[in-house]
């Protein structure tokens, strides 16, 4: 399944177009499901509409920041997007909005971050007599242009460059950078190595947990005790990455599978006491997976350990 991306723009939308055209390659791991704007006249909206992409526009004028962000958020979730990609979206976002898309929102900025946050980046680079300018893609955090940088491309500054001529070349670099970085980033969601790492981080925070390899499967148990989590990667060539955790029995197993047949399954050879949870569907809620792992740990942990935890929890 491809990652579903909403692109937010305010103007020309050339980066949006670059992302959109790149997504037409069959090997691209994302698809653009919505192009949204705070500017109903944004040129990019027309490009997207002509390409058959759903568009949404809502002017921010006369609205509180959080209220406008909430309207955008609603449109994005209605479109089923799992990532938000800012491409020349000229709005400072409310903390609520940023938190909702934590680690799922990217931005492109026309400088080599952390240099020259904010506006007039090209002019600043020329005035500072830098020999290179460039562009960066970063994760969006509450601070402007400040999140972790996922990648950048350097662009040499010519002796007679003006802000305009430099901007034009940096734009070309932006159009190369954004689709590539976005593809790599969303690729994590189906990348077994990344998924195993995520489970490892959650499993090893359980008390007295360790990691073992059993029949080629990564598993996590209580040191010298029982296992509480397995990660199934391409088991018998099924192509799936899934977490196996303890449950109460056949009834809970049937209920879970019934609730979502794509996500939950009965793991072969494990019996009724375990459930398989797909991790590679592109919309994994890691907090939820953390809860599953903690619950499974509790189900196998010896009394003396769970009692200790209960006592600790009271303080
Ligand atoms: C780009 O320079 C981008 O780096 C910045 O805004 C500009 C958007 O341009 N964040 P476009 O609308 O994608 O052409």
Order of helices and strands: EHEHEHEHEHEEHHEEEEHEEHH
Strand order across the largest sheet: 3-2-1-4-5-6-7
Mean pLDDT: 95
Structural class: alpha/beta
Under CATH at level 1, the class of the largest domain stands as Alpha Beta
Q: What is the name of the CATH topology of the largest domain? A: Rossmann fold
**How many separate domains?**
2
Bound compounds? 5-O-phosphono-beta-D-ribofuranosylamine
Q: Tell me the helix content.
A: 25-40%
Counting H and I runs of at least 4 residues, what is the number of helices?
Answer: 10
Give a count of the beta strands, DSSP E runs of length 2 or more. 13
Shape: elongated
- CA gyration radius, whole angstroms: 23 Å
CATH architecture of the largest domain: 3-Layer(aba) Sandwich
Question: How far is it from the N-terminal to the C-terminal residue, by CA?
Answer: 44 Å
The CATH superfamily name of the largest domain is: Formyl transferase, N-terminal domain
Which spans of ≥5 residues are poorly predicted at pLDDT below 50?
none
In terms of DSSP E residues, the strand content is 15-25%
Sheet having the most strands? 7 strands, mixed
């Amino acid at each position: 399944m491809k990652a579903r991306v909403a692109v937010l723009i305010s103007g020309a939308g050339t980066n949006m177009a670059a992302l959109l055209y790149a997504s037409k390659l069959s090997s691209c791991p994302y698809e653009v499901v919505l192009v949204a704007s705070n500017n109903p006249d944004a040129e990019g909206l027309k490009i997207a509409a002509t390409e058959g992409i759903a568009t949404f526009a809502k002017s921010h004028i006369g609205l509180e920041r959080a209220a406008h962000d909430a309207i955008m958020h609603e449109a994005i979730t209605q479109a089923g997007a799992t990532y938000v990609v800012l491409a020349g979206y000229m709005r400072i976002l409310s903390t609520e909005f940023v938190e909702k898309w934590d680690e799922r929102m990217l931005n492109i900025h026309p400088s080599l971050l952390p240099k020259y946050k904010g506006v007039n980046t090209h002019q600043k680079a020329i005035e500072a007599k830098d020999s290179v300018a460039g562009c960066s893609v970063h994760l969006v955090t509450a601070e402007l242009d400040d999140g972790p940088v996922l990648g950048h491309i350097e662009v040499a500054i010519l002796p007679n460059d003006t802000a305009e001529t430099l901007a034009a070349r940096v734009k070309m670099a932006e159009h190369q950078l954004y689709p590539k970085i976005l593809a790599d980033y969303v690729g994590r969601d189906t990348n077994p190595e990344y998924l195993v790492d995520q489970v490892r981080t959650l499993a090893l925070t359980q008390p007295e947990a360790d990691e073992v390899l059993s029949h080629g499967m990564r598993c996590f148990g209580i040191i010298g005790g029982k296992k509480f989590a397995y990660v199934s990667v391409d088991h018998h060539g099924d192509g799936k990455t899934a977490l196996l955790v303890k449950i109460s029995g056949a009834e809970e197993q049937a209920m879970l599978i019934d609730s979502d047949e794509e996500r939950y399954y009965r793991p072969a050879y494990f019996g009724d006491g375990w459930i398989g949870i797909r991790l590679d569907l592109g919309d994994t809620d890691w907090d939820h997976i953390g809860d599953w792992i903690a619950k499974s740990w509790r189900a196998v942990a010896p009394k003396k350990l769970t009692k200790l935890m209960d006592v600790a929890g009271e303080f």
